[in-house]
Design brief:
The complex is a heterodimer of chains A (74) and B (150).
Chain A lengths: L1 H5 L16 H37 L8 H6 L1
Chain B lengths: L1 H28 L12 H4 L10 H14 L6 H28 L2 H44 L1
Helix pairs in contact in B: 1-3, 3-5, 4-5
Classes of the chains: A mainly alpha (74), B mainly alpha (150).
Keywords (chain A): Membrane, Transmembrane, Transmembrane helix
């Protein structure tokens, strides 16, 4: 409102300044995304190994309660 | 390992949403004007609201991507498709474990290694596509702001 009163007639209003480029956040987003992917892959690789053991247990006729899933959870 | 994964996942979400919010603010200030289809509040809330969380996060990311890179921006759809598929496989693992628990059937157990492998591959692919979008948007932001300043 003040600007409207002080600005000479006919002079264009100065454009609002641009928000800063979130370059730091973009880098942080990428780094943490890669960390998450690496951890997720490691975690699932461990689960894959465990799942193979579960498959062998099941193939030998052992029950869910005897499998590593329950022992790991416990 | 799972606790560490959860902590990193929460931080990835917070940092990612902060970046999306700032990127959207910048995209709204840059010409030409682009009409974002969803309110900026959905940057944070769209992931948790039942039902709409199946597509609102995609719309938010796609609009920031398109508003910054231009109509030729590609990749948000693929990223979201992989993201949803990852969720489906994670649910499938729970179903298979429950099926094994209820029936003690070896057939259920035999699916587990392949589902775990699929989940790892899908997670890696989803993460890589997300990083590609972030890199592309960040590069275009720098280029467009530099062009305006020149």
């Amino acid at each position: 409102m003040t600007d409207l009163h002080t600005r000479p007639a006919g002079q264009p209003q100065a454009p609002a300044p641009l928000p800063p480029v979130p370059g730091g956040l973009a880098s942080a987003t990428q780094v943490i995304a890669w960390v998450w992917v690496a951890l997720a892959v490691c975690s699932f690789a461990a689960s894959f190994g465990e799942a193979r053991v579960v498959t062998e247990y099941a193939a030998r006729g052992l029950t869910y309660l005897e499998s590593p899933i329950v022992r790991t959870a416990g | 390992m799972n606790n560490l994964l959860s902590v990193v996942q929460i931080r990835a979400f917070v940092v990612g949403c902060l970046w999306l919010g700032r990127s959207r603010r910048l995209a709204e200030a840059l010409p030409p004007r682009y009409r974002h289809r969803k309110h900026q509040a959905f940057i944070w809330t769209g992931w948790f609201l039942p039902i709409v969380n199946f597509w609102y996060p995609y719309l938010v990311v796609r609009d920031v991507h398109r508003a910054t890179v231009g109509p030729a921006a590609r990749g948000a759809g693929a990223w979201w498709a992989w993201f949803l598929t990852t969720d489906v496989v994670a649910v499938a693992i729970y179903v298979v474990v429950a099926g094994f628990a209820l029936s003690d059937s070896a057939q259920y157990a035999s699916y587990l290694p392949w589902l775990e492998a699929a989940l790892a591959a899908l997670t890696a692919a989803t993460g890589a596509l997300w990083v590609r979008i972030v890199r592309e948007v960040a590069a275009r932001q720098r280029a467009r702001v530099a062009a305006l300043a020149a």
